[in-house]
Specification:
It is built from 3 helices and no strands. With about 90 residues, it is an all-alpha fold. It has one domain (about 1-75).
C-alpha cells in the first residue's frame, strides 16, 4: 500500500510539472514516474527530478528539492522528511 502511495505521489508531481511545460501525458504521469524512479536509483529523488527536467527541456519553476518536498507532502500529509502517519 505504501509503495502505491509513493508511486501516485510521484506521478502527481511529474504530471503537474509536465502540464506546466506544455505537455499533456495521456497516462497521467506513469511513464514520467518510471523515468524518475530509474534516475533516482543512481542519484536520489532530488537529482532525478532535476535530470528529468533537463532531459525533457523543461523550464523549472521549482528545483528537485521542492519537487521531492511536494511528493513527501502528498505521502505524509506535511512538508517534512520525518515520517508521520500515512493514513489512519
Amino acid at each position: 500500500m505504501e509503495e502505491r502511495i509513493w508511486r501516485e505521489a510521484i506521478e502527481a508531481v511529474v504530471y503537474e510539472l509536465a502540464r506546466h511545460n506544455g505537455e499533456s501525458p495521456l497516462d497521467r504521469g506513469v511513464a514520467l514516474r518510471r523515468r524518475v524512479e530509474a534516475l533516482s536509483a543512481a542519484c536520489g529523488l532530488v537529482m532525478a527530478f532535476d535530470r528529468l527536467a533537463e532531459e525533457r527541456g523543461w523550464r523549472m519553476d521549482e528545483n528537485g528539492f521542492e519537487s521531492k518536498s511536494r511528493v513527501l507532502a502528498l505521502v505524509y500529509g506535511v512538508s517534512t522528511e520525518t515520517p508521520t502517519l500515512i493514513a489512519a
